[in-house]
Fold this protein.
Amino acid sequence: MTATEQSLLLFGGVLAVLVLASIVGFALARRHASSAPNPTIDNLNSRIKAWWLMVIVIGLAFAFGKAGIIILFTLASLAALREFITLTPTRRGDHAALAIGFFVVLPLQYYLIWIEWYGLYSIFIPVYAFLLLPIIVAVRGDTRDFMGRVAEIQWGLMICVFCLSHVPALITLPIPGFAGRGLLLIAFLVLVVQSGDVLQYVWGKLLGRHQIAPRLSPSKTVEGTVGGILSATLLGAALWWITPFSAWQAGLIALAINLMGFCGGLVMSAIKRDRGVKDWGWLIEGHGGVLDRLDSVIFAAPIFFHVTRYWWTP
Amino acid sequence: MISGLCASVITGLARLVTGVRGEWRGCEPAPGTRIYFANHNSHLDFVLIWSVLPRALRQVTRPVAGADYWLKGKVRQLVGERVFNAVLIDRAPASQEVNPVTRMIAALDDGASLILFPEGTRNLTEMRVLPFKRGLYHLAKAKPDVALIPVWIENLNRVMPKGEIVPIPLLCTVTFGAPVQVAAGEDKSSFLERAREALLALAPEGRDRP
């Protein structure tokens, strides 16, 4: 099969699942139409609707290849960083550093990925931006809570830009015998991690009894987490044919990125609890903000990138 | 026609940059003559309120703005009068030919709703809201049937603090509270303080680092 045929098959499969989900959602809404309004079903249906939109947007980006994916993730980073900084207490003296973060560091990181300069994009934010930002804040002369302010801006850039940019960076990996198929690696990562989220939600709603992290995420259950991660691992193994991995390798990698994704959800929940909010934003109906949807991908992407790079590139 | 298009472009841009969301906490976006009174940190405050009003309401809602700012320069004048359809008032009492409250009452009588910033000027201090000017009280007394709705604009002061030239994109929220009225026998200063507190009550915990 060519890469295009594999992509089409993959999208066909995703669309079939969405059609099925929409039918189930519609049937549930019909059956409960007469009784009192059911927030769980309403939320389920708005989530499914948002999934349609997200799948269409990702599909369009795929159709435009490398440029489409890089533009999509540049915009996703912008939206994510905007949500992150909105909930971060800042002072007037942070403004210049924030403006440089948004309008210089972020686009430059994606430009470096566009020109496939691995040696720089893999250290640009952790080294250069890391040192530049405190300099800019220091020059403005406001020393109040200096360390905390700088660290939060750096952390925002690491999470929302650096880590997330490792998704499009997958295209740049020179894997022998896999030339021209980089987009499929992205599809594998996004599909496995996002279906992990969905399956954890589904298993949790069906069987969930025992909370797994009551103080961080009251809705996450042991049953949902185990069931979701295991079934997404199986899905990853079943998708080996779009990757350079064998079936058992694909399964192991799927397990690793799902565990990272789960932990990402916990970490980002801890920040939300501290800030006293339930969601990062309101851009995606039923899901909350962009960061609510991407937290798992953000934590999984760099690990997936480096595992693949270490073992599969010369 | 062209000014309507300009208004749509401006509110569209504001929505794109700030992802602004309207939260109708104490009232509904219903028709009827209203005075929205809001906190004032930026020249773009009323654009955000506009952006979250349904189109039909937006078309009849006019910002009240200082003539000294909006009559300076041809472009600004054109934008202020044609696009924003602002009710321009003279803020310096010495030169006032027409009482600002009279202007506003005339606009209300024409069926317009108003966006008013009772602090009188942009708040660039550390205080969350400055004391209110007395115009709001006189309006409330003169037009008791017009609903006075407090509107809190959150975050726009962080998008572009005083003295900065580059705005940073942050999510903004516009929260509409329950209408306030002058109670029987209530004097000017206690009404103004109560209205100010109704506005402050809508403010979330600040994200400005103390």
Observations:
- Chain A has eleven helices and no strands.
- Residues 175-314 of chain A form one domain.
